[in-house]
Write a structure and sequence with these properties.
This protein has 334 residues and is an alpha+beta fold. The chain has one domain. The chain has a 15-stranded mixed beta sheet that branches. Helix 2 crosses helix 5.
């Protein structure tokens, strides 16, 4: 049975109330739209089933991820995962994507070499406001339009901004912890980002650290539930100037990259490693002390979409409870 804090329950319910409610096309147009959507989704599912490899779950714990069906993903995904895995949902105001940045320490990565502001963001991402700009290449515009129009909008997941106007009003950022009630261990951290202009979900991901069989050290693992799951594994990189990189090389199965998974039965996944799809993040502090990120997605060696983020730390009173008590005391005196 899922456990909730009342404030966390209210926050997630409010998130769902602000989702985009645009009606799908109707009549003949709607029928054609539904047919194309069915064919594209079904085609991807069939491609993974025919070309993926059958992997025993017990032999590949690094692949473990919640698998979605044809239901809407949206903001409710964290509640469903918590219910299925008997976890507690928490939304602390200073929650991070990683509980400790040092969990990424490995033979090829020294977290101490990364700028302290970057470390602080990963450990306290909920305390930051995001501003975002997007650029879609001519090559990627058609493919992203197909994905968003016929798949992403129906499941409310991976609604990439094709037009820069879609992100003009900004992006929300909510961090959700999925915790074992008995131990307090954070099993996964959800990072929900939505377009303020429409409420559509750009990313409803689950973040954690994972050790892949053919990598020297821990990687960042990001899971996007969809029809099945899309897992992205990224190697951490400490650059000489103190900036931070995340790279999905896509070179071989068992290394970092993009993995598309579907259910293969009670004991198996069917997994397709997509070597042609790669991602690159560069997180840095600019000359004016502003924290920024450049995120580029490549397909077949071509840049498809670029996202630029500006992360601003929100000001939070250090002792709100104490301040409130002082105000009450002053009011009593008056």
């Amino acid at each position: 049975m899922t456990q909730w804090k009342s404030s966390d329950m209210a926050q997630l319910r409010n998130s769902r109330l602000t989702e985009d409610r645009a009606a799908p096309p109707s009549g003949l147009t709607g029928a054609v739209h539904a047919l194309i959507s069915f064919c594209l989704e079904g085609g991807i599912h069939l491609w993974v089933r025919l070309t993926g490899r059958l992997v025993r779950k017990s032999e590949a714990p690094w692949l473990a991820a919640p698998l979605g069906g044809r239901e809407r993903i949206g903001t409710g995904i964290y509640e469903r995962v918590a219910e299925t895995e008997d976890l507690e949902i928490r939304t602390p105001p200073d929650a991070g994507l990683l509980e400790h940045f040092n969990v990424l320490r490995g033979a090829n990565f020294d977290p101490d070499a990364v700028h302290p502001d970057i470390r602080h963001f990963y450990e306290h991402a909920a305390g930051y406001q995001l501003d975002v700009w997007s650029e879609v290449s001519l090559t990627g515009r058609f493919f992203l339009w197909l994905l968003v129009e016929f798949i992403s909008r129906r499941m409310d997941q991976l609604n990439f901004p094709i037009s820069s106007l879609e992100v003009a009003k900004g992006m929300t950022s909510e961090v959700v912890q999925l915790v074992e009630p008995a131990t307090g261990r954070i099993v996964n951290t959800g990072w929900l980002r939505r377009l303020k202009s429409s409420g559509r979900v750009i990313y409803a991901g689950l973040y954690s650290a994972a050790q892949l069989p053919d990598e020297a050290g821990p990687c960042v693992k990001v899971t996007f539930p969809c029809r099945g799951s899309a897992n992205v594994y990224l190697n951490p990189v400490a650059h000489p100037d103190g900036s931070f990189g995340l790279v999905s090389s896509g070179s071989a199965f068992g290394r970092t990259g993009f993995y598309r998974m579907i259910d293969g039965g009670p004991e198996h996944y069917i997994v397709r490693h997509v070597r042609s799809l790669r991602e690159l993040f560069h997180v840095y502090v600019d000359a004016e002390g502003v924290l920024r990120t450049d995120h580029t997605v490549f397909f077949l060696g071509l840049s498809i979409i670029r996202l630029h983020y500006k992360m601003t730390r929100l000001s939070v009173p250090e002792h709100p409870a104490q301040d409130e008590q002082e105000l009450i005391a002053v009011d009593d005196i008056l």
